[in-house]
Amino acid sequence: MNVHLANKQIVAKLLVALSVLFVMSCGGSGTVTDTAPGAGYEIGAAQGESVDRYSVRLSGAQVLPVVDTRHTGQAEFTIHEQTGQLFGTVVTSLENVSAVHLHEGGAGEAGSVVVSLIASVTGAGNTIFNVPADFVLTDQQMQLYTSGNLYVDIHAGDIALRGQLSAELPALAIGAELDDLQAKLFTPVCSGCHTGSGGSLPAIMDLSSADASYNTLVGVFSIGEPDLLRVSAGDAEESLLIRKFEGTQTIGARMPFRGAKLDADTITAVRQWINSGARR
Ligand code: HEC
Fold first, then answer.
1. Quick check: pTM over 0.70?
2. Which tens digit of pLDDT belongs to each residue from 216-274?
């Protein structure tokens, strides 16, 4: 192994260590970090070869069919673009994990296993899995990697979590009614922070079940922007929820907090639910 490759490994390990700290510091739930840009990437580029990197959030919402669980996982993958060597770490709050796999397959597709990840450390309520040392992707798998056509999944009893190695969040195919929004959006993406078990934001706003979400959103004034309802039934544009998704709020952060912006179809589904009366 040459010195250059050794340096790459150190960088990759540092990135992984940092991301593990990040995941633990916010309870391992509900965060999505930005991903490496896929554009302009060239395999075998002569100068300044880059390590292509993905930060992946795993949820029940990406499993086929959808699994309703508040558990999440976080993964980091990097590739050495000339050797195809793959580095990857998956962290999850799930217990009794039976398997963690990297698969071939685009968003919404199932495909064959590329490699099984190995459990390495258990502690602080999180289990960490790694790609085996010296695992190398084939040329064909490298193309799938860079085009967003690999995914990682976790199996634990009846529960499964899945995340796409992609620079874009996959569309969730959400229907404009509360039960669907709950199963595919509020439970997997929001309820890790909006738990209902605390006296201030975010915990005080309980998004952990459809009944709780209805009670805390519809017709309830915001704490951050007290002139605005969180959800104003029939009027999505006057609802803080939509402004928090679009990033047009005047107080606080865009939601999901510290996460990638929700895809347009998901925001449209929430808009339609509100505009058609925000019914339970
Ligand atoms: C990582 C933690 C985290 C996640 C995940 C998260 N939030 Fe938040 N949320 C916060 C924090 C912290 C605040 C308070 C600060 C602010 O308003 O920006 C907040 C505030 C809000 C508010 C404003 C409430 C008020 O009364 O002013 C709304 C609405 C909201 N979140 C909706 C959501 C939704 C919907 C999701 C999921 C798509 C989500 N959040 C995901 C942490 C989170």
1. no
2. 999 999 999 999 999 999 999 999 999 999 999 999 999 999 888 898 888 999 999 99
Nearest CA owner, ligand 1 atom 9: 202
- The pLDDT tens digits of the residues spanning 158-191 come to 899 999 998 765 555 688 899 999 988 999 899 9
The residues spanned by each domain of the chain are: 3-35+49-163, 178-275
Q: Domain 3-35+49-163 is of which CATH architecture? A: Sandwich (2.60)
Distance of CA 202 from the midpoint of ligand 1 (Å): 6
In DSSP notation, 77-89 reads: EEEETTT-BEEEE
Closest CA to ligand 1's atom 1: 257
